[in-house]
Amino acid sequence: MNDALAPILAASNLSRHYGARHAVRDVSLTVARGEVLGLLGPNGAGKTTTLQMITGNLAPDAGEVRIRGIDLLDNPVGAKRHVGYLPETPPLYRDQTVREYLRLAARLRRVSKAKVAAAVDRAMERTGVGDVAGRLIGTLSKGYQQRVGIAQAIVHEPDLVVLDEPTVGLDPNQIRDIRALVRELAGSHSVILSTHILPEVETVCDRVQILHDGRVVYADTIAALRNQRGGQALTVTLLRPPDGETLRAVPGVRSAELLAPGRFRLVHEPGASPAEALARRCVVDDWGLVALVPEETTLEEVFVQLTQRDEAEAPVAETQP
């Protein structure tokens, strides 16, 4: 395969158990160049365990991880060279300055001594922490500490950046800044973003995978998610509505449900929207069209449908005892 077309990450059939409990079961995922993949799931779904396996911090019981074609188990040093990782709790040394810490991170990532200064400056510029380069990390706000954590993950210019809950505990302005940074990173890196904030995924991600009870229960693009039910139903509001039988006679309409006086939900076959024919009838028969809105399935709806379960059946937290 052409190297430019090959996925940055290809993880196949990953499994991990703790005693009798299976934290991850047969999970596969790929990340293309420049793609932002959102990894979702309720607490205990296996997200953190999966991220630890694909970053080489936890060995899988079964499965394979390849980063830029390099087998992570056979050649961990070579594979990890292409990965940057921000855990949910950033690995920061609070008694070091930002510059000191990032210099240490660069050396640990085997950036050559001659290039460390330039690599640190570049990472600080990209994450917006250059103005606090001389300050102790422990004196920084939560938002700045998250930025420093991301800076250490990209200081060696990895192909894949893995971010586990990068906006947790931040205020709305800080969250917006981190979202913008994630999108900027996608210009030169592939990104895996694990988060509980569903609008965040729709804002910054190209594709989403949802884990539940250690398994992948949904995997598709954000565009496909929005069209999962969107385009199969329309909500129409009319000032002078006809009866339901007349609406069902419009070409493409399969059923008409009265939601409120003058407001109907029209179901139709996928890929055959009756919107144009309906608008034409509204004009010709003077139905007084007020609104014609296609339905969309939100990420929250899909998430709840796929992961809702009785609390008594909920899995144990995924962290290792």
Number of strands: 14
- CATH topology value of the largest domain: Rossmann fold
Given this structure, which CATH class of the largest domain is correct?
A: Alpha Beta
CATH architecture identity of the largest domain: 3-Layer(aba) Sandwich
Mean pLDDT: 89
- Work out the helicity level: 25-40%
CATH superfamily of the largest domain: P-loop containing nucleotide triphosphate hydrolases
Which regions have little confidence, pLDDT < 50, spanning 5+ residues?
Answer: 310-321
Number of helices: 11
Q: Structural class of the secondary elements?
A: alpha/beta
Number of domain modules? 2
Distance between the termini: 42 Å
SSE ordering: EEEHEEHEHHHEHEHEEHEHEEHEH
Strand adjacency order, main sheet:
6-7-8-3-9-10
Description:
The chain is an alpha/beta fold and 321 residues long. The chain is built from eleven helices and 14 strands. The chain has two domains: 9-227, 3-Layer(aba) Sandwich (Rossmann fold); 231-295, Alpha-Beta Plaits. The strands form three sheets. Strands 6-7-8-3-9-10 form a six-stranded mixed β-sheet, with helices on both faces. It has a four-stranded antiparallel β-sheet with strand order 2-1-4-5. A four-stranded antiparallel β-sheet has the order 12-13-11-14. Helix 3 (98-108) packs across helix 4 (116-127), helix 3 runs parallel beside helix 5 (142-154) and helix 4 packs across helix 5.
